[in-house]
Amino acid sequence: MRIKIEPRRQISRPLQWATPPLSVLATVVAAFVLFACMGYDPSRALYDLFVAPLLSLQGLTELALKASPLVMIGVGLAAGFRANVWNIGAEGQLTMGAIAGGGVALLFYGQDGVWILPLMCLAGILGGMAWGAIPAFLKTRFEVSEILVSLMLTYVAELFLSMLIIGPWKDPEGMNFPQSRMFSDSALLPTLVDGTRLNVGVLASLAIVLIAWVVMTRSILGFEIRTVGSAPAAARYAGFSRDKVVWLTLLVGGGLAGLAGVFEVAGPIGQIIPKITPGYGFTAIIVAFLGRLHPLGILAAGLVMALSYIGADNAQVDMGLPNAATGLVQAMLLFFLLASDFLVRYRLRLIRPQPIRAEEVPA
Amino acid sequence: MNEDSTNGSGDRLELRGLTKRFPGVVANAGVSLAVKPGEIHALLGENGAGKSTLVKMIYGILQPDEGEMLWNGVRTAIQNPHAARALGIGMVFQHFSLFEAMTVLENVAIGLDRPERPAKLAQRIREVSTAYGLPLDPDRDVHSLSVGERQRIEIVRCLLLSPKLLIMDEPTSVLTPQEADRLFETLRQLAHEGCAILYISHKLAEIKALCDRATILRGGKVVASCDPKNETAASMAQMMIGAQIRPLQQRGGGTAGKPRLVVDGLDLPAEGSHGIALKGISFEVRSGEILGVAGVAGNGQNELLLALSGERTVARSHAVMLDGTPAGSLGAARRRALGLCSVPEERNGHAAVPEFSLTDNAVLSAHGRLKLCSGGLLRAGRALDFAARIIRDFDVRTPGAGSAASSLSGGNLQKFIVGREILQNPGILVVSQPTWGVDAGAAASIHAALLNLAASGSAVVVISQDLDELLAISDRLAVINVGVLSSAVPTASVSLAELGLLMGGIHGAESAPVDHVETRELANAH
Amino acid sequence: MNASVLVPLLVSVITAATPLLLAALGELVVERSGVLNLGVEGMMLVGAICAFAAMSTTGNPVLGILAGAAAGAATAALFGVLVLTLASNQVATGLALTLFGIGLSALIGQGFVGHPIPILPKLAIPVLSDLPVLGPLLFHHDILIYLSVAATAGVAWFLKRSRAGLILRGVGEADGSAHSIGYDVIRIRYYAVLFGGAMAGLGGAYLSLAYTPMWAEGMTAGRGWIALALVVFAAWRPWRVLGGAYLFGGVAVLQLYVQGSGAVFVPTQVLAMLPYIATIVVLTLISSGSMRNRLNAPACLGKPFRPVG
Asked: Angle of helix C238-261 relative to helix C223-233, nearest 10 degrees?
């Protein structure tokens, strides 16, 4: 008797949706072992990571607040991944969005006006789009890999940010710290629940999930994106343009990352600082895959990953668990997910030699 | 060693009850046959009969689930192709096992198990290939060679092993009739030297001409064994298919109406270094007419299909006229709106998206003509209805429209694709390889559907490498060779020899000089 | 500019280029076998911290170098299991490997931040190192620099002249053909992936043992990605990888030199952007120049393979 691996003729839908939660479970087990090996009390670490944040209103609002950018970026990236457009520079697009949106806030510093926030959002979207447009242009015009270009631009964006806040945008009363002034109130997102940091950005994320859901599953545009990604030759045959899809997904991905950047600086942070996110642009890649590139799945996946961020802060304060452990656990989650994909596409069968029967033979 | 392991019958290879299962199908069920030294033994069967699986087991690429193999009377398990070659088994694949970006020399070297010095190997390649009438330059890059020359590499790779058994999988499907004749000479020479040859084909005429014995496979089982010289093509066809083939209705000529597709001086540059440029393609197809385009694989058939379907466009709009409208610069979607539908050769990933459902695959090409979307949103109900109609009208065997295209057999998927295009009522239909890898029943129904479409007033272009198919269904025939299309002639007045010369003609001049000479000699003889 | 200025400058170009060269050579072999491993950055980081940790605890530079190579190969093995055995998406898995390497190296490195270690010793080649100009320029380096040049020659010979190299190229060119002829495509790709990991690990080890003998989180600063770009730039040819690496080393040194000299007033960040922008510019020039480069790409690059039966 031996195990035989057979490709499924059609991928298994139930397994496709069962494997992400199973991967989360496997990650929890692996994290348990990892923490134990590192000499921490693993039960307490897991409690800090995954349970404690859910037990208070504060924790829940923070969860939504952190999930919001992850979901927003993840939805945009997923559209690209579906089309085989590998934008991995969302971190840079987010940074440029934050710079553009934050720049508007600083430009109208001290002024009042309901138009300031919308203008910041618009600027942030455009800033992110501009950073997405560069790989789109180079890909459609010269076939340059969008993977490398979008990533290189992330480093450029971070250096650009650093240049601004060390130079012209430095807070004049900031005791020479590399950060901007605190934004005026009219440049800050209104909060939804008093006493918490939960702001309207969360609602925007939810709206984006719903719009993306309709577009990706019900519209001809989503159909084009899926076709270009699954079978480029079939897309040409159907009359769909790959270049249009490349532009579209990179602009949407960049724009959403840019908007997320504005929401960070106009939300919980309230100013421009050297490190705007703990790597949301990269974590959103994991979110997109964990959510099976489906907007609703990404919403759930975003909450899981946000939990790990808040939990990590918890565990660090509570028991000194290093933050680096979170990054490792997040990456392990993606590994487990990618490995479990095998079961979605292949079937394992135990076979034992058996005599041939007449009815097995097709007529 | 087992006592029954030697049988003294003098068979070079004997198979006893070989069985191989794949998911959902038994490819070979208890296959037994024997090949003697010096014998050219045909393995005959339809597409999907299990011929390729059987020879892959002999060559060690696949392992049988049951049964045994005897090599010179000794029971032998062939674990992998290295072991097969060590025994003296050589194989020429239908889909070549070559490496495009490498030279002929490197391609041969990688297929040998004992390394040789390059200079010495090059010398041997020259000697052996000349000795068997298959001249090859070891320093050429493979991608610059014609399909026939590429096959020579595969053959020479085997000949260098001094094979005791040579397996040839559909070798003539890529050759002109003249090239095939020369290959037969080589094979007879080898057999004469004592090599056993297992010859896979579904072409009855060449089996009658070449082979000493034939084993016929159907549905994975041996259904008959015969001496082809004592059989007629019809009797072997009956054994192969298991039923009488219904002859196609004779086409009534001369009913063609107004020109619907007019191509005038269409030029298209080659794409990449492996592509073929189209040069001055001109033809017209009238309402009610089927134009057949014959040619050896890789002579610009794909490019022609892309240029007609609109997947590749040209600047000069008047190069392609659809019902009088210049369309050369229009893309696929615009041409479809004008009434031109197409079926490309490759089903998976070109004509259909494997992981999409049949409904989504119906949307793929029909979303515009059948208004399967409005206001940017897909109309799921209409799409489902259309998919269901294709499945019903074209007898597609599937659990339902929600099944993925990848779950269908090749023949069923082809029926679905052809059905999807025909049910859009195209004024012009361009089809490439309509029955490639399709069983006889499905092929007959696809041919009937094409004839019906033409009868209803559409213009149809059929691009195919299967001459029998073209002779059966087309009104006029043209031949494509290195991107140049010959002028079309009425099918009724064309001979196989003429077609063969057209298929080989210009190609020979651009490859090895020997081809050129022989083609000319043949032309003179003609 | 005289030799006393020029020689140290050129030597610093060589040192800046070496980690790129090592990692890119490894990735070149991986890609020639038809596999795209985007996790170079992650493998370099794990190699860097493991080499540093071994050096810091044992004080033995050889053990440090070996630890770096082994750690890189071990990380690559993880990638191999996913991509080769489980046929996962190569792009996604490569990204995962990078994220994994960033996390793992940061975790291991917790206790090593700020530790001093001795710099990798220089090995002067007898006689030759005494030559004026050429001596200090070419014959007074640490072992990894010699190794990187030897590896270039070795990889070039392997691919062009050896039978194993022919088979490796064949697997990357037409996996189906190689399989039909009887080669174990998956196993050959495993060897390539492990080699690539070891080389990336060496590249990382060079950073933490010789270039800046210390550990800092994310100290590769995108060099793994630049190495990936170098492979494309070099059209999958070993000696062109060497040229490309030295070119990028030059850009990096130029930036430091201009910064240090204060001769030109440009914000330091703009200068620091140079290597990244140069990467984009070079990739664009290569891609737009002609079709030649793209035609050189192994035909099976990035495509998963699983034998049937």
From this structure: 130
